[in-house]
Specification:
Length: 349
């Protein structure tokens, strides 16, 4: 009886929290129905787990400090096509506020455009104290250049993003300063992933145009690597299955050079990678290469004769249109952008 009462009270409080969450609208142009001009003002006045909708605008909304769990949604990110201007942010800082006893863990960032700035300055960055950990962050359907993790972070989920630069987990041998674990990368177009030497990351059904570096203990499944030069650097103890590489060699060390099933990767001292059913030196058969229509989602589709259609684990499709979260065809369409990937084809990372 008492146990049932506790369950009822817990369910009631959880439901009350969901019902009580509020939706706010932000627009830095003249717009009826909006509540705030700036994203930061909306964040400061919102309660934890509120949703903030940000309207598209020709003017960048600037920097954002996020110290509480919120859902930030750019206008159009939940629709088939983004009309007019996108919602642009320069940088989001995810951190905690010990005085208010709040933390940005549990936040979602959906559908924003982050412009490039000289010096490879990160668009999303964490600052975490010794006793705090930024957890349960969702990054979905954004155009991003660089993401930098400082301090401890865990359980981040990347889905359907275009990441033109890198995601840096902050951990590389021999220092291993940061602890970024349980990161999931599903169905993204991404240049490079690096600095996850603490292990436990999952990389599946992505198009990877750059490199994987300083990574250990990862599951790497059903991806397509488009870089013709080596794509692996200081990658240890990982399991590769159902991947396709356009280049003839996976890395610049002998243990990465065996084509086919990667069986020689098991015998490399200090590397200890394993895998099966991978293919190197294979053209995946894209319908066409990225062009001005990249944001329309038509690129990186596979033609009817593509070797990647059934190359994944258990005969699944490799690349961003396979797996559990197929890439949305028109989620990134934006008529403003003429050359969205100026450095994306020939990776410099």
């Amino acid at each position: 009886m008492f146990k049932n009462l506790l369950l009822f009270l817990f369910s009631f409080l959880l439901t009350a929290q969901v019902v009580a969450s509020t939706k706010w609208i932000v627009c830095n142009q003249r717009s009826e129905g909006s509540h705030y001009w700036s994203v930061q003002s909306a964040i400061e006045h919102a309660a934890p787990y509120d949703t903030i909708f940000v309207k598209g605008s020709p003017i960048n909304y600037g920097n954002v400090l996020l110290e509480k769990p919120l859902i930030l949604v750019a206008e159009g990110s939940l629709c088939d096509e983004l009309p007019g201007n996108s919602a642009k942010l320069t940088r989001i800082l995810l951190t905690s506020n010990p005085f208010r006893r709040t933390i940005s863990s549990g936040s979602s960032i959906i559908g924003f455009e982050f412009p490039f700035f000289a010096g490879n300055r990160p668009n999303i960055i964490t600052v975490s104290g010794e006793k705090t950990k930024i957890e349960h962050i969702t990054i979905e359907r954004n155009w991003i250049w660089f993401i930098e993790i400082a301090g401890e972070a865990q359980n981040w989920f990347f889905k359907n993003n275009i990441i033109r630069g890198w995601v840096n987990g902050g951990s590389a041998r021999p220092h291993r300063v940061a602890k970024s674990q349980d990161f999931f990368f599903h169905n993204n177009v991404i240049n490079s992933i690096r600095g996850f030497d603490q292990g436990r990351i999952h990389i599946q059904n992505n198009i990877i145009t750059g490199r994987l570096s300083d990574i250990s203990g990862a599951e790497i499944l059903n991806n397509i690597f488009t870089r013709e030069a080596f794509v692996l650097e200081n990658v240890y103890g990982c399991n590769f299955m159902g991947n396709i590489s356009m280049g003839e060699h996976l890395g610049n060390a002998d243990c990465y050079r065996h084509p086919g099933r990667f069986e020689s990767m098991n015998t490399c001292t200090g590397f200890a990678n394993s895998g099966s059913d991978n293919r190197v030196g294979v053209d995946p058969g894209f319908v066409y290469w990225p062009s001005n229509d990249i944001m329309g989602g038509s690129v990186f589709k596979l033609n009817g004769n593509s070797a990647a259609l059934r190359a994944g684990v258990n005969g699944q499709q490799a690349g961003i249109y396979g797996g559990r979260y197929p890439f949305p065809e028109n989620a990134f369409k934006n008529q403003e952008i003429d050359d969205p990937f100026p450095f994306f084809i020939t990776s410099i990372y």
